[in-house]
Amino acid sequence: MDIIQELKLRGILKDCSNETKIKQQLKEGTTIYCCFDPSFHSLHMGNYLLISLLSRLQKRGQRIVVLCGGATGMIGDPSGKSKERSLLNETTLKKNIAAITKQLSRFINLDHQNAVMVNNYDWIGKISFLEFLRDYGKHFSVNYLLAKDVIKSRLEGGISYTEFSYSLIQATDFLHLYETMGVKMQVGGSDQWGNMTAGLELIRKVKGEEAPCEVFTANLIMNSSGQKFGKSEAGALFLDEELTSPYQLYQYFINVDDADAIRYLKLFTFLSLDEIEKIEKNHVVNLGERLAQKLLAKEIVSDVHGTKAYENALKLSRVLFEGDPTTVSERELQDLFNSNITMISSITDVFSLLVTAKITSSNRETREFIQAGALRINNHLVTADTKLEAIPLLFNKYYFVKKGKKNNFLIKIN
Description:
The chain is of the alpha/beta class. It has 20 helices and 11 strands. The strands form 2 sheets. A 6-stranded mixed beta sheet has the order 1-6-5-2-3-4, sandwiched between helices.
């Protein structure tokens, strides 16, 4: 099956400028670029869909140009934004570019002759204001730009000339890459459609209507509840393990709804569609075992952070069930509770500790759990005679409390 058909079946493909011509280019082999915005010092799982798309294309023999938006990052993409972005200073931007360049190089094989990474500041930064207006701006009517959804949606609240110009700058990128590197195709998220088609417009105005250039987009991913993918109370799912640890990433995917699990396997993993179909059949008849979620979490954490990170995430997940926190680091202990840590002052007895931390509602309830053998603190079974001072603090500051089989709490002593 051709790559476009596969992308459709996986639920990745959204819009094509001309599907027939895109298929022909891909069949013959072409050069494709995708731009990543350095507005933050880490990419996230939404970006990973495009990263994995580039990887799929590279594995199919296409030449890949990964563009880090050093110039466009100074302006700020208005796509999906209801108000003006705060402009980044040069120091922050350089830091972000260095960080995401390092991240991208983990996923795209830049040692391969069919992949290269560029920074659009290298050419955009050399264009004077007058040159920009004369050589690029003259090809776009104001009416054409106003019709773009990304601009139209901002007219009522106001849009600066800075962000109004963003589509033109991105179009300039496409023309430059077309002329200097033979780039004939751009891929991006569906929210980039207006910016990407502006690139087609510019190339065809400058090079002629028959210039062989096309674009296609990937779907904006939503979960079964209609929320934008990767958004949660804790925020986006970042590819930087210091922002989103492998364990947190594992927990997100192990807990997705059944309605999302198979879909995410198609979107994010490199398992074949035949493999996923077999998994789906087993998953549907054994819903309680969460077979799809387990495989999904394994594939994504392994792809993003490596096999060892996945194995460690699996080890951490067992800590909550087994109640033994003595084998993990302090950072891992914090990850287990995703910063949901109860802070209390020093307390001398078990009853006061549990009631103050609201783990039990009263001394009477505490006794009931103790009598049932259902309380453990730092993996010590709590009995009626247990003295709190006899239980060593974890890292001199934490009590890990397990109540029953499924309820876990972390208390930090101030």
